[in-house]
Amino acid sequence: MQGMSRVLITINSRQDEETVEQSLTGQVFQKDKSLYIRYEEPGASGAESIRTLVKVTQDELKVIRHGEVESEQSFRKGEALSGFYRSPYTRFAMIAHTRELGVDMQGFTGKIHWEYELEVHDVISGNFAVSLTIQEEVHSHDD
């Protein structure tokens, strides 16, 4: 594994008309020809946090989540790729129909954006747009 960089990640996610923004710290590293972005999302009240790993290649994105929620979903523009979602209460397969996928990274900083329809049990359950903005973590020094 080559160098790892600590970063600030701003996640904007829109489901249909509802938008949520989160700012989290994480790490970015490169392994082979893939870029990996790792961060933790706080869990629902009192629940354990969810560890998320985003694998970025030239034309595909894979989001893997571990914790109280386990899920894996891949995105490739113009394709329908299967994945799964699992929690203590339910589990199901899902298919992401990816309309847009844009990766604009310079080293360990930049922006990743994707839009997709999510299909669950043969029904479209929503339209999603997600963007990750990745910035180097700035350390302040008290002199």
- CATH architecture identity: Beta Barrel
| End-to-end separation | 34 Å
CATH superfamily caption: Calycin beta-barrel core domain
**Main structural class:** mainly beta
Q: CATH topology, anyone?
A: Lipocalin
- Side by side, the strands of the main sheet go 1-2-3-4-5-6-7-8-9-10
- The average pLDDT value, as a whole number, equals 92
Helix content: under 10%
Our estimate of the beta-strand percent is over 45%
- Oligomer designation: single chain
Number of domains: 1
Number of E strands:
10
Count the DSSP helices. 0
Order of helices and strands: EEEEEEEEEE
Weakly predicted, low-confidence segments: none
Summarize the main sheet: 10 strands, antiparallel, barrel
Radius of gyration: 16 Å
Q: CATH class, anyone?
A: Mainly Beta
Shape: globular
